[in-house]
Design goal:
Chain lengths: ~230, ~240
C-alpha cells in the first residue's frame, strides 16, 4: 500500500507529519490581491496571478477573474477549491435564471447568489469574492462579498491578503468620475503596490474591462508593471 | 471559523515557527548529543507537457510504504478514455479509485451520447467528486488529453481546486521536476523534444527525491492515437 499524503487541516507533532513536506499538506489558497472599480459605462477589474500551497507557488499564472455571465465577472480570493466550486455553482444558477427570464441577468442577482451560498455555508467555506459587471438597469456595478457572507455595493473594492497594503493608496487616490483609462491605470498601480508588499500576491497583473459593448482583457507582465520606489 | 464579523485573510509569506521547535527538540534529544532525524519524504514524481501535436505525460514507477519500496513497477498513468490519460500522486488507493470511477463514468457517457469525451468534462467530474469529499480523498491528479477542441492539460488537487496549464509537475518530487520544466519548456514544442523534457523532469525527481525512483513511464497522446511507453527508460540500478 503506498504512503498517504493528504492530512487535512492543522499540523500535528506526530511522526506521520514528518513524512510529508509541509506545503503538500496545506490547502491551495489564492492568497491574493483583487480589485474592482466602477466607472460611467462599466467596470474595471483586476487581480494578481499567484496561487500558493503554503510557501510553494502552485500556479504563477492563475486567472482569478472568472466569467459568470456575458457581462458579469467575479474576482476570487481565499481557498482555490471553495471559490472555484462556488463560481461554478453560481454560473449554473445564473445561466438557468437568465434563460428563464429571457434577458441578461442583473449584476445584483449574481452578487446575491454568491451571498446566499457564502452566508449559508460560512463555517465550511473560505471565500472572499468581488462581483462586478454591467447591466442595462444600473450600468457598471461592483459588489463585494467578503468572508462571512456580507453583501454591499461599493464604487471601488479591494480584497484578498494583499488588500491590507493598499487601502491607504486606494482611499487617497480614488476620485469619482474617472474615465476607463484612468481606472485601468489606478487598478494597475494598486495591484503593483500590493504585489510588491504581499508575499502571497505576485506574478502578472490581469485586468479586464466590462462595458455594454463587451469585454476587454489585458495582461501586464511582471517587468511591464508601473515602477515605484523600492527600498 | 468566522464567528464574529472579521475578514480573516490567510497569513502570507513564509512560516518559520518550526525552527524554534526543532532547536528545542534537538536540545532535548540526549542532551544535545544526537541530532534529530531528518524528514522522510515519500511519494511520486509525475509531470505533463502540452506540445504542438498533443500531450506528453510522465511518471516514475515507485510506490512506497513509509521507508520500504512496496512496488518497483507501479503504473501511475491511468487510462481514462482512449484520448485521455491521468497521472496520480498521493494515496495510491485514492488515485486508482478516482480514475477508475472517472473512466467508467466517461465510458457510460460515450455509450449514451455517441460522442467522445472531452478533457474538460473529465476535469469537471473529478473536481466535483473531490470537492464533495472536502480533501479526505488524497488524490493529486494531472489530467491530459487530446479532443476536438485541442490539446489540454489540467491538474486537480485533493480539495477540488483545478488549474489549466501548459506544463506541470506533481508529487513529492515536483519541485525538482518543475525546475527542469521551467527551464526547458517552450510553447508548441516538437513531440520528441517534449518527450525528452518530460523524461528529464521525471529523472530529476527520481534523483533528488527519496520517494521517487525506479523506472520512467511516458504516455504520448496525439490526434492519431496513444503511445503508452512503459517503461520509457529503465533504472540503471535494476537488479539483473
Amino acid at each position: 500500500m503506498a504512503a498517504s499524503v493528504a492530512v487535512a487541516g492543522a499540523q500535528h507533532l506526530s511522526s506521520v507529519s514528518d513524512l510529508v513536506p509541509d506545503w503538500a499538506r496545506q490547502e491551495v489558497s489564492t492568497g491574493t490581491t483583487i480589485m474592482a472599480v466602477e466607472f460611467d459605462g462599466g467596470v474595471v477589474i483586476g487581480a494578481d496571478s499567484r496561487t500558493t500551497t503554503g510557501a510553494y507557488i502552485a500556479n504563477r499564472v492563475t486567472d482569478k477573474l472568472t466569467p459568470i455571465h456575458d457581462r458579469i465577472f467575479c474576482c476570487r480570493s481565499g481557498s482555490a477549491a471553495d471559490t472555484q466550486a462556488i463560481a461554478d455553482a453560481v454560473t449554473y444558477q445564473l445561466g438557468f435564471h437568465s434563460i428563464e427570464l429571457d434577458e441578461p441577468p442583473l449584476v445584483r442577482t449574481a452578487a446575491n447568489l454568491f451571498k446566499e451560498m457564502c452566508y449559508r455555508y460560512r463555517e465550511e467555506l473560505m471565500a472572499g469574492i468581488i462581483v462586478a459587471g454591467w447591466d442595462k438597469r444600473r450600468g457598471g456595478q461592483v459588489y463585494t462579498v467578503p468572508m462571512g457572507g456580507m453583501l454591499v455595493r461599493q464604487p471601488v473594492s479591494v480584497g484578498g491578503s494583499g488588500s491590507s497594503y493598499v487601502y491607504g493608496f486606494v482611499d487617497s487616490n480614488y476620485r469619482s468620475g474617472m474615465s476607463k483609462e484612468e481606472c485601468l491605470r489606478f487598478v494597475a498601480e494598486a495591484l503593483t503596490l500590493a504585489m510588491e508588499r504581499d508575499g502571497s500576491s505576485g506574478g502578472v497583473a490581469r485586468l479586464a474591462v466590462i462595458t455594454e459593448e463587451g469585454l476587454e482583457r489585458r495582461v501586464i507582465l511582471g517587468n511591464e508593471l508601473p515602477k515605484f520606489f523600492s527600498a | 471559523m468566522a464567528l464574529s464579523y472579521t475578514v480573516e485573510s490567510p497569513s502570507p509569506g513564509f512560516n518559520f515557527e518550526n525552527s524554534t521547535r526543532n532547536v528545542v527538540f534537538e536540545a532535548l534529544l540526549n542532551e544535545g548529543k544526537s541530532k534529530a532525524p531528518s524528514p522522510l519524504k515519500t511519494g511520486t514524481t509525475i509531470a505533463g507537457v502540452v506540445c504542438k501535436d498533443g500531450v506528453v505525460l510522465g511518471a516514475d514507477t515507485r510506490a512506497t510504504s513509509s521507508e520500504v519500496v512496496a512496488d518497483k513497477m507501479c503504473a501511475k498513468i491511468h487510462h481514462i478514455a482512449p484520448n485521455i490519460y491521468c497521472c496520480g500522486a498521493g494515496t495510491a488507493a485514492d488515485t486508482k479509485q478516482m480514475t477508475d470511477l472517472l473512466a467508467s463514468n466517461l465510458s457510460i457517457f460515450t455509450m449514451n451520447s455517441g460522442r467522445n469525451p472531452r478533457v474538460v468534462m473529465a476535469m469537471q467530474i473529478l473536481q466535483d467528486m473531490l470537492f464533495r469529499y472536502r480533501g479526505q480523498i488524497g488524490a493529486n491528479l494531472i489530467l491530459g488529453g487530446v479532443d476536438c477542441t485541442g490539446n489540454h492539460l489540467y491538474t486537480v488537487g485533493p480539495y477540488g481546486d483545478m488549474d489549466k496549464v501548459q506544463y506541470l509537475a506533481m508529487g513529492s518530487g515536483d519541485l525538482a521536476a518543475m525546475g527542469i520544466l521551467e527551464d526547458g519548456f517552450k510553447p508548441s514544442m516538437e513531440l520528441e523534444s517534449a518527450k525528452k523534457l518530460v523524461r528529464d523532469a521525471i529523472h530529476s525527481g527520481i534523483m533528488s527525491d527519496l520517494g521517487s525512483g525506479n523506472n520512467i513511464d511516458i504516455c504520448v497522446i496525439t490526434r492519431q492515437g496513444v503511445d503508452y511507453i512503459r517503461p520509457y527508460e529503465e533504472s540503471a540500478y535494476k537488479d539483473k
